[in-house]
Structures are given as structure tokens and as C-alpha cells.
Write a structure and sequence with these properties.
Blueprint (H helix, E strand, L loop, with lengths): L1 E6 L11 E8 L2 E8 L6 E5 L14 H11 L1 E12 L9 E3 L2 E4 L27 H13 L9 E4 L8 H10 L3 E3 L2 H11 L2 E11 L12 H19 L8 H5 L1
Parallel strand pairs: 1-4, 1-5, 5-10, 7-8, 8-9
Antiparallel strand pairs: 2-3, 3-4, 5-9, 6-10
Helix pairs in contact: 1-4, 2-5
């Protein structure tokens, strides 16, 4: 079985694993993918913003990235998202599962099915993320003494600008816990592809207007969180999923 990690802000490699670059040709462009070596040869990594963080969120080639996973035969995906905290349940420095999302992006290519030759498909989104993988993540975190929020709603804005306090106030009323700029687009495409998908958000600051100080976490704290989440990902991605119902939900 093959699995992949998708990383964004602050996550540009897989700590402790030697990788080699592999270029994957897709219908939407060429994608650089890092592949593990040795016992990790079935593990892949994509940095959605590029390893030099040069690709803004509204310009990420989401369809190419996800089609690359399909072409590689990936079955499971673990995504890590840097977010701003709206809910105080997960403050800066905290981590939470993604269980729902709200999409307020505009003009993005967020489907493989545009009619015509590509066909038409209405993908269920009742449970955007694999519940079985989520349970494995919580269990792995608990074993390592890491606290992870058990549920959370991610609101996805277009970027690259940050949100206004008025927008964040509205998003809070809507029930959003975290705000970011990438998860909804990736989630929709990964669900269309029928892959097992789990995602975690780690907060790097308060969203605008929640606190007087945005309180960005330090680079050292970001690195510590990233390494902990990578350890959890490596444990979860290749573990058995006895209770998974992803395939049933797609039918």
C-alpha cells in the first residue's frame, strides 16, 4: 500500500526520512513529489506551496497535485494545515482534527468533473474526512501524550490576504474553529478521487479580532509541532483501518 503526506506552511519535508524527487506528469501539469527510500519507499510527500514557499494558496495547482497521487497509486493521505484559531478550544500552538469544512473560495478549479469529456459527479460530503483514520490519529496522539482536538470546522478563504475582523466574526457565528486557505479545495478533490483522507490543523496565531495580539507561535514551536504530527502520520498511514466506511459513503 502507498500513502502520502501533504504539507504546507512550515512543513516542507519528512523529518528523519531520506527522500528522492520524482516528477509526475498529470493532465494539469508536472508535479514534483518526494518519495521515501528504504523501508519508506511507499511513502510520498508533496509540499503544496513548494519547498521554497513560493506558491500562494490561490495559485496552488490542486488538481495536478491530487491527480499525481492517483497516478502513483496512493490509497491514504494525511494532510497538515497551518491555521489561525477562531475558536479558543484550539489556541495558538494547539492541534485539532478537521471533521468539517466551509468553502468561501472563489474561482478555483476544485473538481475533476466539469461535464463533457470529464463527466459529471456529485460527491457526498457528509463526512469529508475518514473517520477511521481520525480515530487512529487520536489514539496515536494519546499514546505520545499529545493533545489533539477531536473535531473542528475549517473555513477556507481565498487568500493570499488575511481576513478582516468582521469576516472572522461572521465565520465564528457560522461555527468555524480554524481559518486557512487550502484545505477545502484539497479535500473536495481527494474525496472525488476516493482516497482515505485525514487532516490535522495546527494553529500558528489567533485569527484577526479574536485577541488584541495575533500571537504568532515561534519557529521552534512550529518545528516541534510539525515533527510530532509527522510521527503520528507515519504511524497512522500504514495501520489497518478495520472500521472504515469511506467506500460505502462514496457509493
Amino acid at each position: 500500500m502507498k500513502a502520502a503526506i501533504l504539507g504546507g506552511t512550515g512543513v516542507y519535508s519528512i523529518e528523519g526520512i531520506e527522500t528522492v524527487e520524482q516528477l509526475v506528469e498529470t493532465d494539469y501539469g508536472r508535479v514534483p513529489v518526494m518519495r521515501g527510500t528504504g523501508k519508506w519507499e511507499n511513502l510520498y510527500f508533496i509540499s503544496r506551496h513548494g519547498t521554497d514557499h513560493s506558491v500562494p494558496p490561490h495559485m496552488v495547482n490542486y488538481r495536478a497535485n491530487i491527480q499525481a497521487l492517483i497516478k502513483l497509486g496512493i490509497e491514504r493521505v494525511f494532510a497538515i494545515y497551518a491555521v489561525g484559531s477562531i475558536s479558543k478550544v484550539v489556541p495558538p500552538g494547539g492541534v485539532g482534527l478537521l471533521t468539517q469544512f466551509i468553502d468561501v473560495t472563489q474561482g478555483r478549479s476544485n473538481t475533476f468533473y466539469n461535464g463533457g469529456a470529464s463527466g459529471l459527479k456529485h460527491t457526498p460530503m457528509d463526512e469529508p474526512y475518514c473517520r477511521a483514520m481520525g480515530e487512529k490519529i487520536l489514539a496515536a496522539a494519546d499514546k505520545k501524550g499529545i493533545t489533539i482536538g477531536k473535531s473542528g470546522t475549517y473555513i477556507c478563504t481565498n487568500g493570499p490576504r488575511f481576513e478582516t475582523p468582521a469576516e472572522i466574526k461572521m465565520y465564528k457565528i457560522w461555527g468555524a474553529d480554524y481559518v486557512g486557505m487550502t484545505a477545502a479545495t484539497e479535500t473536495a478533490l481527494i474525496r472525488e478521487a476516493g482516497l482515505h483522507f485525514a487532516a490535522v490543523a495546527y494553529s500558528i496565531n489567533w485569527a484577526a479580532g479574536i485577541e488584541e495580539d495575533l500571537a504568532f507561535i515561534s519557529d521552534e514551536e512550529m518545528m516541534r509541532i510539525k515533527n510530532s504530527l509527522t510521527e503520528i502520520a507515519l504511524e497512522v498511514l500504514f495501520a489497518p483501518l478495520e472500521s472504515c466506511k469511506c467506500k460505502e459513503e462514496q457509493e
